[in-house]
Each structure stands twice: as C-alpha cells, then as structure tokens.
Design goal:
5-stranded antiparallel β-sheet, 358 residues, 37% helix, globular
Length: 358
C-alpha cells in the first residue's frame, strides 16, 4: 500500500467518505509532486511531445492574436501546466519570426510540481528569455495577457453526481474493509435541476469554472486571450469520464491512489459559459484536427519532410496523423480547442466566431 493510500484510508476512517473531487485533489497533488509523468517511460504523452509542429503553430497563433491586440509591450505570456516546457520552447522558436514579440513577451509558467519545474528550466535554458514560475495564476503580474492551457483542465478534480429515484446524489469514495469503493451521499447540494434518467452521471468542474472565471475577469480588465486545448466535449452531457492511466494503460482509479494519472473530460460548454458571463468572447470550440489544419500543419509537415531523412519523414507523417486523425487512433476529434478573448478580439485564427453571446 502506498503512503498516500494509507493516508486516504485513515482520512476516511476518521472523517467518513470523501467526495470524488477531494479524492482526485489528494491523488493529483501527490502524483505531480513526485514524478515526471510524460513520455514513453511515463504514464501519458501530450501533443507537444509528439511533434514540434504543434508548438510551432501555437506560436504563430499567438503572434497573430498579439498583433490583433495592438502589439502591447509588455505582454505576459503564460502557460498553465507546462509539462516539460516543450510547448513553450517550440512556440518561442516560431515566434522568432517577429522579434518585437520576443522583446515584449514576459514568460510565466504556472507549475506546482518541483520535478517538472526542473525539466522546464532545462528545456527553456536556451530560449534567451527569462522565465518566472508561479504556484497560481493570480501570482502573474497585471497587464495584457496571452495564455495557453494544453491538457491542463482535464487534470483538475471534478464532483460527480448520480441520478437516483430520490434525485441527484453525490458520488463519494469510502471504505469496505480495507478496500476503497465508490458510494453515494443521500442528498446532493447545488442547483443541478431534476434528473431526466435514473443512472445518469453529471460531472461538475467546480475548480475549472473558478479558474476560467478568474481568468476571464482579468482578460476583460487587462485585455488578452486564452487558448484552451484538451480532450472533452460540448455539453451539456451525462457520463462518467473519470479515468486513470499508468504506463499508458487504463487502471482502476481507486487501486493505487497517487500512483496513476487521474483525469476527467473537459466540458467546453461550461468553460465558454463562464467566460461569456464575464463579458468575454468564446471562440469555438473546434476539433484539434480542424484547428491545426486551418493553421497549416500539413504545409509545415511538407516543409520539414523536404529536409528530413526517409526515417525522419516517416516520423513526421506519423506525428501528423496522430495529431489530426479521427477516431481512436488519433487526437483529431477527441481534442477540442477553445479561445476566450476580450471584446476587442472579434476573430482569432483557426476558430469559428464567438459561440455564446454574453
């Protein structure tokens, strides 16, 4: 039994069953504080680790949006949950096309993991730009903002509610002997409405909504844009999307607390609603496939293959397919892209016009 597993069992034995949200929070805090989870030797792989093309196109997107903002100097360039720093390194390399942007950009990484901060520092050492690290978005100084969140919101805890004959009941994590099990709270709190079908699972991303609301208030005040890329759906929808990955393989989320990556699919509709309620435009979402194709990923792949060996060209083609292919083999449909911007930005590259009126 892991140390966190013992702690969770002791906590439940003393306080009683805990919410799924609290369980996820305990597990994720331990998980990210104790390892680098990325890559073939880790538990999962993100788009920036698949190909440099992903980050380069995000860099070009930022250049266009910065220009649309009136090229503010300085501008805070922020990434939430920056992994190994690969995405930031790739987008900064692409941003060299406009030297004035690099002069204006002040790089901020919001990262709580000591292990990942070390990797980010090594990755960005050659960028030529100073980097500041923060525990929270609130610690980033005021001013115009460009923010990227790739596979960040899926790693935030959610509450889960189950539709029963007596209404919505919150899902809890409790004990049966020494084994962690799921159970239900007799009554649920919150404005969830009346269940339509017995057995429906409703996920409520309280922390995600809080973060997007805080971010949106800042963008409305200081101007700027945030780009959110993650796997998820356009709600409202019902379903249990809680999952755990270890060594790239699905595992029981209650089996080894803190030793597997816990995630839940992102409800982009709720994020867009929260941003619109603060007076922002919500652009999209679009599928990752449509977004990357609109930004020119096929042309970039062709350019890279012209200077590559046959083996490298095959790798580039495989990366292109994985980033854009539909279905189970690729990320093209499952992953969505949403931008939220202040009202001065009525259009952004690669995404449909604002989808929700404020």
């Amino acid at each position: 039994m892991t140390s966190l597993g013992r702690h969770v069992r002791e906590l439940i034995a003393i306080e009683g069953p805990i919410t799924v949200e609290r369980y996820m929070s305990l597990c994720l805090r331990h998980y990210y504080a104790t390892r680098d989870p990325l890559g073939a030797g880790g538990d999962f792989t993100t788009a920036p680790e698949i190909s440099q093309m992903f980050g380069e196109l995000i860099g070009l997107w930022l250049l266009e949006v910065w220009s649309g903002m009136g090229r503010p100097n300085p501008v805070h360039l922020v990434e939430l949950g920056p992994g190994r720093g690969t995405l930031m390194a790739d987008l900064l390399r692409a941003a060299r096309l406009v030297p004035d942007f690099l002069t204006a950009a002040q790089v901020h990484l919001v990262e709580v993991s000591p292990a990942l901060r070390q990797r980010q520092q090594a990755t960005l050492a050659s960028s030529g730009l100073p980097v500041q690290w923060h525990e929270r978005l609130e610690d980033v100084p005021d001013g115009p903002l460009l923010l990227v969140a790739n596979e960040f919101f899926d790693a935030l805890p959610v509450r889960q509610f189950i539709a029963t004959e007596r209404g919505w009941c919150e899902r809890l994590v409790g004990l049966e002997g020494d084994r962690l099990i799921f159970g239900l709270r007799p009554e649920a709190e919150g404005p969830l409405g009346k269940p339509l079908r017995i057995g429906d699972v409703l996920e409520w991303p309280s922390l995600s909504i809080d973060i997007i609301q805080d971010l949106s208030r800042r963008l409305a005040r200081d101007t700027g844009a945030a780009l959110v890329i993650d796997y998820g759906y356009w709600g409202p929808a019902f379903g249990d999307t809680l999952q755990a990955l270890k060594k790239h393989t699905p595992v029981d989320p209650l089996e080894e607390p803190g030793e597997a990556d816990l995630t839940a699919h992102v409800d982009f509709h709720r994020l867009a609603q929260a941003a619109s309620a603060q007076g922002l435009y919500a652009h999209g979402p679009a599928s990752q496939r449509d977004f990357l194709l609109a930004l020119g990923i096929e042309a970039r792949a062709t350019s890279l293959k012209m200077r590559a060996t046959p083996a490298q060209a095959a790798d580039i083609e495989a990366a292109l397919a994985r980033l854009t292919e539909r279905g189970d083999k690729g990320m093209g449909d499952l992953f969505k892209v949403l931008a939220v911007t202040h009202k001065g930005l009525q259009a952004v590259p690669g995404l449909p016009p604002p989808s929700i009126a404020s």
